[in-house]
Amino acid sequence: MATAILEQFINGTMMGSIYVLMALGMVLIYGVMHVLNFAHGVLFMVGGYIAHLFFFNLSGSYPVAILCSMVTLALIGMVLERLVFRSLRDNLRMQIVASLGLILIVQNGVVQLWGPHALQMRPASVDSLVRVGQLSFTVQHFVIIGVVVAAVTTLYLFLRYTRLGTAMRATSQHPEAAVVVGIDPNRVYTITFMIACALAGLGGALLGPLFLIFPQMGDAPMLKALSAIIIGGMGSVPGAIVGGLGIGILESMSTLVIPTDYRDTVVFGVLILMLLVRPWGIFGVRVRGEN
Amino acid sequence: MKATIVALVLLVAGALAPVIFAGQPYALYVLTLALCYAIPAIGLNLLYGYTGLVSLGHMGFAGVGAYTTAVLMKDVGLPFVPSLLAGAAAAGFVGLVVGIPCLRLRSHFFIVVTLAVGMILFTLFNNLDGLTGGAEGLPGIPRPQGFAIGPLEVEFRSLTGFYLLAFTVTTLIFAFQYVLVRSDFGRSLSSVRQDETLAAARGVNVFGHKLMAFVLSAAIAGVGGAMKVLFLRAAAPLSFELQESINLVLMLILGGAGYLIGPIIGAVIFVGLPEFLRIASEMRLIFFGFVLLLLARFAPRGVCGLAEAAYKKRFDREEAVGIAHS
């Protein structure tokens, strides 16, 4: 039993790290721009495909493939912010309509380009194993956890200590006041979207080798990340990290007790429970009249 | 007056569709399928168009109605009308159970919860093998029994017969929507959509109205789901997955949310247009994705909104010309 728990704990931490990447991206977009981007899951999936493309056809090096995936996604993010989301600011319902449109375009577009079948990519880190007691995990498990820790630390330092990061925080706190002190909000919005999309691309490139790369691979992580940012507190970066890891570990642990088929149900059940008890989340601040 | 004429023309055209498409069973098939989507779209219209709440899991409620009706007709052997009503009641009940806790949430959170509820319902359809047949679904659902009024024999086994049934049900649901929207209750719903705080200050029970709208909307979706599985003669979880819920929102936005006829126009365009233009099935969703982006940007009120704007523009010009002449 102890080994089973340890196994599910490490699996959960790995999946949780992926959810953290997604949740951070969505929380940045929400916190700075007040846009809820339901299309983040398909961007994650595109990240997997781009990594596959660079790994097999162009470079053969997995780290290069990851980097290229992040850069490509950042560019896609820039285009999306400029062309789609900028004109829909402060219009929640139409933003959601637009992100549903993006889901349809990207998901079916990928099927057109790469076909409906799942792709496989196996860098060395997937084939080599690490033994932990009686258990063995792929190196990729620990690569994912390590890269995510590094990415989160970098993001934290960026938000905390650079001028641009400070500008992002300022815009999220009070857009008008940010303009007063000379911050160009449009530039901040574009950069926020680029960072968020790059994080989604990183997630897809990291998870792709471990499982398969297929058009729906981003759906579940997007829904889990959405749950994570609500449980953690809308707009809260620490909340996204705690929420993402918590959900990953919770869903892995739940498989020890109940059938795997109901794993998602457990997560959404916890989400609904959380919304009933504490709708502003773990780290969120309660706003009067807004729950 | 003009609206009444339009409604009558549509009613007659709809009833005569089997004659109009006499030699084209496929066109009638597509039209029937469109009606099966129009019903849940009307349900969603009550919620989104009139009350201002977005639900991204509405086909989940349709699924509850569909499986209830299917099990009652197939395994219990109940006739059509009580089964359909039971399906609507079951979907409405699930709506009530979900609505009571969740409608207190702010708009963002509510949307996410509907998404989660849709996913949970899908998981249940897919895994409760004993009740729903699991991933394979329930095949062989019987079509409703026919009946005879004197010499007139009415049957629902043929395509034409089932089309007329679907048309009748859609008309009834449409009439229900019409009555509801024009009632005091409907006006209160609009006031909730426009300004919750003001509505509450004017004495509208905001939560009660939202809950009622949500329950009715879920029940109507249940009727639509039931009609869909009766038409396809099989209930499968894939008919009620997330993608289908997204499609439903798409139809409503396309037709025009907040217009009585919007959901029907949207459903007919969404189901019919790709067949008419012969767009390959893989390309149709990409096509509609771009349509959604354009609608969100340029025509948030859909086809009906565009038509209304065009009509008003022409009307205003005529009026201006009239004033100049007099």
Descriptive report:
The complex is a heterodimer of chains A (291) and B (326). With 291 residues, chain A is mostly helical. Chain A has a domain at 14-216. Helix content of chain A is 73%, strand content 3%. Chain A has helices spanning 2-33, 40-58, 62-85, 92-114, 124-127, 139-161, 163-173, 175-180, 185-207, 219-232, 237-254, 263-277, and strands at 129-132, 135-138. A two-stranded antiparallel sheet of chain A has the order 1-2. Chain A starts with a helix and ends in a 14-residue tail after the last helix. The mean pLDDT of chain A is 86. Chain B has 326 residues and is mostly helical. Chain B has a single domain, classed as ABC transporter involved in vitamin B12 uptake, BtuC (Orthogonal Bundle). Helices cover 78% and strands 3% of the residues of chain B. Chain B is built from 14 helices and 4 strands. In chain B, helix 7 packs across helix 8 (184-194) and helix 8 (184-194) packs across helix 10. The model of chain B has no long low-confidence stretch (mean pLDDT 86). Classes of the chains: A mainly alpha (291), B mainly alpha (326).
Secondary structure: elements and pairs:
The complex is a heterodimer of chains A (291) and B (326).
Chain A: H1 2-33, H2 40-58, H3 62-85, H4 92-114, H5 124-127, E1 129-132, E2 135-138, H6 139-161, H7 163-173, H8 175-180, H9 185-207, H10 219-232, H11 237-254, H12 263-277
Antiparallel strand pairs in A: 1-2
Helix pairs in contact in A: 1-6, 1-9, 1-10, 1-11, 2-3, 2-4, 2-9, 2-10, 3-9, 6-7, 7-9, 10-11, 10-12, 11-12
Chain B: H1 2-20, H2 25-51, H3 58-76, H4 80-102, H5 107-127, H6 129-132, E1 138-139, E2 147-149, E3 152-154, H7 159-182, H8 184-194, H9 196-201, H10 206-232, E4 234-235, H11 242-255, H12 262-277, H13 281-298, H14 302-325
Antiparallel strand pairs in B: 1-4, 2-3
